[in-house]
Amino acid sequence: MPAPEIEQLISLLAKLPGLGPRSARRAALHMIRRRDQVMTPLTEALRRASDALQTCQTCGNLDTRSPCSVCADPERDGRVICVVEDIADLWALERTQSFRGRYHVLGGTLSPLDGIGPDDLTIAGLLQRAEKPGIEEIIIATNATVAGQTTAHYLRERLGEIGVKTSRLAHGVPVGGELDYLDDGTLAAALKSRRDM
Amino acid sequence: MPAPEIEQLISLLAKLPGLGPRSARRAALHMIRRRDQVMTPLTEALRRASDALQTCQTCGNLDTRSPCSVCADPERDGRVICVVEDIADLWALERTQSFRGRYHVLGGTLSPLDGIGPDDLTIAGLLQRAEKPGIEEIIIATNATVAGQTTAHYLRERLGEIGVKTSRLAHGVPVGGELDYLDDGTLAAALKSRRDM
Q: Is the ipTM of this structure higher than 0.85?
């Protein structure tokens, strides 16, 4: 049996998404073996992140300050807000470097079966932001899952009451994708949304 | 772009075995979101493990003390030493609760192509231990891989010079295994080592 210190480290690592008991054991051993190169820097990074990070009170992004660097950046276009389910989605969009507006992180999707209603997401905050003068477009970039699309429809209705323009991401053939390997739904959507060339 | 504190945490997590950039991002977000339940305990566990753990000078196990709890346990049979490649293998054998002797962790396998020779493993320490009076058997429990078996053969020769009895783990059908799904090598080994019933 490993020492209790190792046991505890393994059991905590095993709770992280993507790690099970076996990979947690491997990760723990890897860290302990490379104490100076891996373990100490990781401990330090965890401590620093835990101390410094906070949730942006405006958009729900994680940053060392609130409003976050996206909300505070004067060069970003404050007239367009892109609504995402999760901070990871915000990061994914930022990696594309093709959106220069602001974000709003919902914190999940509507899911009546799990008891998650509009009040459990940051929808009230989004409506408040959408009502402000100068907002021209809300891009609803929830996932193309059933839960994500349900949430998108709900948001479109609520935002429609305010009278702000809403849009959603295009469905279609992924860049580099082959038609033969695509699911029927995506292919049908791509056909329906075909564009002149 | 996430804050530099998050970036650094993600890049350190991504270096752990079993985690890539995407799963490291998910793990980092999971931790930051559940700061009190996940992040703080993990930081604490890392710090504690880093402070407390040391390598047993006798067998190479990791423990809070040296000699480790296995080497120091008077109820374990000091006449039998089980040689394993790695601490993870020691843990795996301990989980079976069917070995009550002591261990010796090699720290890897011989690999001339990677420049890993006998001096890079703890073979000298093993030979010293094997020479002591009272040692009756060395079980060579290296992996059943080419590198593991090469190392096992080398160890058998060196230990043979000392005159101590060596043994190796049995090859055969895994418990619960179906013959049809077994590779030919294992099946041939199981047939060759068949036992009266």
A: no
